[in-house]
């Protein structure tokens, strides 16, 4: 869990999650509340806000990334992977999405695939150095069982 938190925090520190224009004002507020609860490690309080933001704009990059980070923090790595894979199918030019997908792959123990996704993110002008370094420092594979959703 500590490694997941470090990778998520590394992303949050290196990147600003500003809501996309497609979010309504209420969606932006919900996203911001969800992120604030996540920063305070109040994951259960964050989830309803993230869900409402997702319902407002299910293809919002900021919402997808926040929800993916929530999944990783809750050790629901497969859910994060599926979310990012789906999002990349409609946002293939999002460096931020590739960066976060790489983090999820790394947490799942797929470091080699993660490095390829970091390369893709970098080719799209996304800063990935800190996350790449954290991923390369992992010595063991981390596989998490999905809890019932």
Sheet/helix structural class: mainly alpha
Biggest sheet features: none
SS elements, strand count: 0
N-to-C terminal Cα separation, in Å? 19 Å
Envelope shape? globular
Mean pLDDT: 84
Task: Describe the protein in words.
The protein has 149 residues and is mostly helical. It contains eight helices and no strands. The longest helix has 15 residues.
Quick synopsis:
By secondary structure, this protein is mostly helical. The chain has helices spanning about 1-15, 25-40, 45-55, 60-75, 75-90, 95-110, 110-125, 130-135.
List the helices and strands and how they pair.
Layout: H1 2-14, H2 25-39, H3 43-56, H4 61-73, H5 77-90, H6 95-108, H7 111-123, H8 129-137
Helix pairs in contact: 1-8, 2-3, 2-4, 3-4, 4-5, 4-6, 5-6, 6-7, 6-8, 7-8
Based on the model shown, name its key terms.
about 0% strand; single chain; disordered C terminus; mainly alpha; 8 helices; about 150 residues; globular
């Amino acid at each position: 869990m500590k490694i997941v938190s470090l990778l998520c925090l590394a992303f949050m520190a290196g990147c600003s999650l500003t809501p996309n224009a497609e979010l309504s004002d209420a969606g932006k507020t919900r996203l911001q509340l969800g992120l604030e609860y996540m920063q305070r490690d109040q994951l259960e309080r964050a989830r309803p806000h993230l869900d409402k933001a997702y319902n407002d704009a299910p293809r919002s990059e900021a919402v997808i990334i926040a929800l993916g980070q929530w999944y990783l923090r809750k050790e629901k790595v497969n859910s994060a992977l599926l979310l990012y894979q789906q999002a990349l199918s409609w946002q293939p030019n999002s460096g931020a999405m590739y960066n976060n997908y790489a983090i999820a792959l790394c947490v799942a123990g797929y470091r080699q695939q993660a490095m390829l996704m970091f390369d893709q993110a970098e080719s799209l002008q996304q800063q990935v150095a800190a996350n790449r370094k954290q991923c390369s420092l992992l010595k063991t594979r981390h596989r998490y069982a999905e809890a019932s959703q």
